[in-house]
Amino acid sequence: MSDKLVPSNPAEVMVIREVVPRTITTFSVPFARFGRIKIGGRGTVVRLQNGSLAVFSPVALTDEVKQKVAELGEVKYITALDIEHHIFLGPWHAAYPNAQVLGPEGLPEKRKSQNNEDVPFAHVFSKDHPVTTIDPDFDREFDWEYVPAHANKEIVFNHKPTRTLIEADLMFNYPSTEQYSKAGVSATSGILTKIFGMLTNTQGNAQKRMLWYGISSADRAGFGRSVSKIHQWDFERIIPCHGDVIESGGKGIFASVMAWHLELAKKGS
């Protein structure tokens, strides 16, 4: 299945960028759902103040990625931000076996059923058994919220020193111009991409409706409680897995996209 999703030549089309010099680096690649909808993909590496690295939604581990990681520090944490963003967990764990692997409930079972590489999870985020600590260094720099009401079982992080929200499918920011900038094709070409882009940009109410009537429909109240907690954090930048990085004004954009759920949570409080 991954052959239809990820590029066959990741080293040639990946954009490696230091979003915050020596602290946050992104690895952006083309990524096509069903081989046709250009949604883009992105992995993020955060360098903690002690020099260790936290990897979120890892992408293909190319030689260039390995070199960049080696320049930054030692990988200590590898996180699948939801049950979909796990394709490269195996290669990353094999390359950095001492790193703690984090992921949502259901993912270990899913990987086993798909005959993926055996990866030991140090922390599994669960509704019934919340993860309240990773270790003192990680806890000091990150807020996190598990969103079990999201269909993909999202885990959202906020890197407090840089005020950067890191997420997978909780919110999109189309088009995926950076992710397709080296692919030789337009990020917005194709009718299915255009339709999906209309639903997943941050202007207007389309994404708001998709979240309300689709993604969160099974548990809007639970979804609202989670996004309300996230909205209380101090963040300015948003790094999504799909679509362009929101470099500034992220808090306001998040509030706009999540407005209906925030209002629901307010009424329930």
Automatic annotation (TrEMBL):
Pfam families on file: DUF4336 (PF14234)
Gene3D superfamilies: Ribonuclease Z/Hydroxyacylglutathione hydrolase-like
Official protein name in the record: DUF4336 domain-containing protein
Organism (species): Karstenula rhodostoma CBS 690.94
